[in-house]
Structures are given as structure tokens and as C-alpha cells.
Amino acid sequence: MLEVTDLVAGYGSTTIVQGISLEVDAGECAALIGPNGHGKTTLLRAISGLIKIRSGTVRFDGVDLTRERAEKIVERGIIHMPQGDLVFPDMSVEENLVLGAFTSAASKRARQRMEEVYEIFPRLLERRTQRARTLSGGERRMLAIGRGLMGDARLIMVDEPSLGLAPVIVDEVYEQLRRIVDSGMTVLLVEENVNRAQSLASRLHLVENGEIVRSGSGAEVLDERAIRETYLGVTE
């Protein structure tokens, strides 16, 4: 479904992503893992059109999206859920969700989508009239993910869903992400917590210094002690 080939991107004069190539199959959950600051988030931003691609290509269902604007990429079905709790604080939960269906195609199915989001995140249904600023950190993270699902998503890219959350809340967020994956949604996940990523994704891509240095199943990527210790800080 998604093909990234020799992608180079960065900010100003600094190159962050240095020739990354990867594929994500339809219905697959793939994860980018590795140390903080090595290009995982930058890669998602390049795929979603938020920063300019310097060279290389992004193809989605065979269509070249390399030079497309971000809003056109959303209309194609690629939904980027960035790090943190990026919600509209003075709007209600339901108003935030409605904004996720801003494309003309998605807006026609907004009510149906909202029911699906409430089924996945029943706590949002309970809080639907509350202002987003009154939610807990975990609830805001659920709202950010739910808002992304309101679009006509065919591929969702979720950046660090566990960032800054207490372990018990991370358990809850990942339980709902598991439901999304099990529904057949295609997912590209960025996650520094290796155990979390491995529990959800069928394929891992280890990123170091803007390059993918190893790809495969969790067992294939994490089987060498040097890799576990050097890149992931995991000691046995």
C-alpha cells in the first residue's frame, strides 16, 4: 500500500532522514523503533506532506504523492496522528471529532464514523460534551487518535502514542490500538517503547541516524544483544 523509496528530508540545512526505503502492506501494522532524535518523526512528517521531500519518492496504492500538498494526501486516506495531545482545548470532545471529518468525502459519513470512534473509545462517548481541556492526558490521547479516525483513513500513522502517559493509561491506549489493528486498518507506528511496538506490529524497522539499519519481525530485529543494548538500551 505504501512505498517509500530513498527518501531524504530534513529542516533548513540539516538533513535528518537519509535515504530511507520501506513498504507497508495493506492491513499490516509496521513500527519504526530506535533512539529518540534519529528521524522517525521526520519520516512521518515527510510522508504526510508537512515537510518538503528533498529527494526520493512516496507512493500510495501506486500513486506518486511525493510533491502533493498535505491536504491532498489526507484526501487520499493517509492520516497522521502526531506526538502529544494536539486537540482543540476549548472545543468539546464531539466538536474535536467533527473537525477530523473535514474533507468533503469524510464529512458525509461523519455520524457513522463518530459512532465507530465511540465504540472503540467508550470513554469519549461519556465525555462527549466536555471541553477537551478538562480531559486527562490519556483521554486527550484517545481523542487525538479518534479525531484521526474520523477521516476516510486507509493508512494511519501514529507517532509515540505512549509518550508521557502513566503505564496503566498506556495499557488502555494500546488496548484500543489493538482493536484498530485487528479491524484491518493499515498502521505505521512510531514507538520508542520496544515491547509496546513488538506487541502490536508484525514488522519492525530499526532507525538510526536517519537510516533503517534493520527490518523484520521482532525476533529478527531484536535477536542480537549488541543491537538491543546499543540502539534500544535493553540489557539482559
From TrEMBL:
SUPFAM superfamilies xref list: P-loop containing nucleoside triphosphate hydrolases
Coiled coil: none
Domain of life: Bacteria
CDD domains in the record: ABC_TM1139_LivF_branched
InterPro entries linked: AAA+_ATPase (IPR003593), ABC_transporter-like_ATP-bd (IPR003439), ABC_transporter-like_CS (IPR017871), BCAA_Transport_ATP-bd_LivF (IPR052156), P-loop_NTPase (IPR027417)
Protein family membership: Belongs to the ABC transporter superfamily.
GO molecular function, one term: ATP binding
ABC transporter domain boundaries: 2-234
The protein's name in its UniProt record: ABC transporter ATP-binding protein
PROSITE patterns: ABC_TRANSPORTER_1, ABC_TRANSPORTER_2
Alphabetical keyword list: Amino-acid transport, ATP-binding, Nucleotide-binding, Transport
